[in-house]
């Protein structure tokens, strides 16, 4: 497993690691893999993309690992893939992201944009307004999503009236908020990544006199980990899209939340964490089918497994393109969590939805 367990991204990535570690605990409590205990090695990249590559080398060369469950930012994933190939390993990438990629050594355990952004844009247009201001961190995920909003927004008469990027870990948002005041959009779509930046933006936004009633934020990356660092008057009432929220009403989710607290002491649950949880369970199922832990055998078997304990609300499985099926939800922030206010049917994953007409067919 490879996560940022220290450094600026550590609070978020430790919570993702909790999902993966919980799955290991459950597997071993149930008898392990083919009668043997599932063991794992951990590398901390200290929130530095360059160390993610070193982490792959260490895990594969020194620890003898064939399968890596890890990574969070798209920058880390892109950096790791050449090293994954060099070691003939597999990467189980846990989180939803910008798509526009397929790789035979990567299994994408989170959603592609057509699985969460398409319905979200329609919901925003129908419930919050059609004049949107987009703000995001300056790297691949926010830029691709902003392009998606601009290119696809016309389907719902959505107009992008402003678009700003800030450096990763930026904490000064006065200029951005002044520009929002000048433009006066109906809604702000936030693709800001990182605890420090997200908290700073929401706080500055509130200080300027905005709240969810006067100008709502519709986020794609603001998790309960971020909300926990905001006062209720700053975060409450704003919106977030996700393939998972802790408020999902299902036996599988209730069991997951209970075990997450009892085993890992973690109260906050979110989509990337669930992706890591599903990834480990998927590898276990694949190992049982393949009767090997060799990367090639696991990769082939992963395409035929089905994990019924997925807290998202439907069985977890992979398509032939290594992407996975997901529902999507809109949540409204209340007291550091999200209440589900809209639910959409699962969509087939379409990685290249910006490069050609996306598939918007429901499963």
From TrEMBL:
Could you name the domain of life of the organism this protein comes from? Answer: Bacteria
For this protein, the parts annotated as crossing the membrane are none
InterPro entries tied to this protein:
Peripla_BP_I (IPR028082)
Pfam families, sorted: Peripla_BP_5
Question: What is this protein identified as?
Answer: ABC transporter substrate-binding protein
